[in-house]
Design goal:
The protein is mainly α. It has helices spanning 2-25, 32-54, 70-80. The two termini are 43 Å apart.
Length: 91
């Protein structure tokens, strides 16, 4: 999953660079408003690419990893309902 997200990120950022460079190298010779529009599109791509690259899928279980502190891990497990305390009873 990580490799696919990384490839999509670099593809999007490459597209951003192509849009920006071609807007001011070639497109501005024919239409300045089109070059400006291309720059606005290129401006939106980097935040979207960052969101795509940092997205977590359902198989990425990073929130379940133990922190290393047994007391904290036990507290979070109780909150998540994973481990019941011995004195708790279901009615």
């Amino acid at each position: 999953m990580y490799a696919r997200r990384r490839h999509v990120y670099f593809l999007m950022m490459g597209g951003c660079l192509v849009l920006f460079v071609s807007a001011w190298a070639f497109v501005r010779l024919w239409s300045v408003p089109a070059a400006i529009a291309m720059c606005f599109v290129a401006m939106v791509i980097p935040p979207v690419a960052a969101m795509v690259a940092n997205r977590r899928g359902p198989e990425d279980r990073w929130w379940d990893d133990p922190s290393g502190d047994p007391e904290s891990d036990q507290w979070w497990d109780e909150l998540d309902g994973k481990k019941r305390r011995p004195d708790e009873h279901r009615d």
